Amino acid sequence: MAAGTGSPCGACKFLRRKCAADCVFAPYFCSETGPARFAAIHKVFGASNVSKMLLHVPVAERCEAVVTIAYEAQARVRDPVYGCVAHIFALQQQSSLESIDRSNIDIDGMRLQELQSCRDDLSSYQPCNKKTRPSQTELGELQELALRMMRN
Question: What DSSP string runs through the chain?
């Protein structure tokens, strides 16, 4: 029975049966919204199979089990071939794309640092002046030095 009321739980209401005091579904499917939630679970897994599964799950963990079963049933109704695996694949792909984006951002950051470093290095050099021809006196001194070296 649904919590303290005389009406059946949502699962028993959907199955059109009397709700027993020890109904395994009663704590998880209220009489108002429960039938709609239970419909997908019954369609995909069957009420008997879900009941057996829940009896094998510790009471403290049944709520999480029901939420998981309901999610999987809804996913299977939306995508009969892949079910919730399609959502898992989509999340993995999204994660991979975000990882690639982060890597590209890191690479762009390193390139920017490298470019800044190159600019800093270039700014430390003095611009080249056009070389002028040596003066006649400088050439004369060099020629004299060369001649002396050749004589010795």
Answer: --TTSSSPPHHHHHHTSPPPTT-SSTTTS-TTTHHHHHHHHHHHT-HHHHHHHHHHS-GGGHHHHHHHHHHHHHHHHH-TTTTHHHHHHHHHHHHHHHHHHHHHHHHHHHHHHHHHHHHHHHHTSPPPPPPPPPPHHHHHHHHHHHHHHHH-
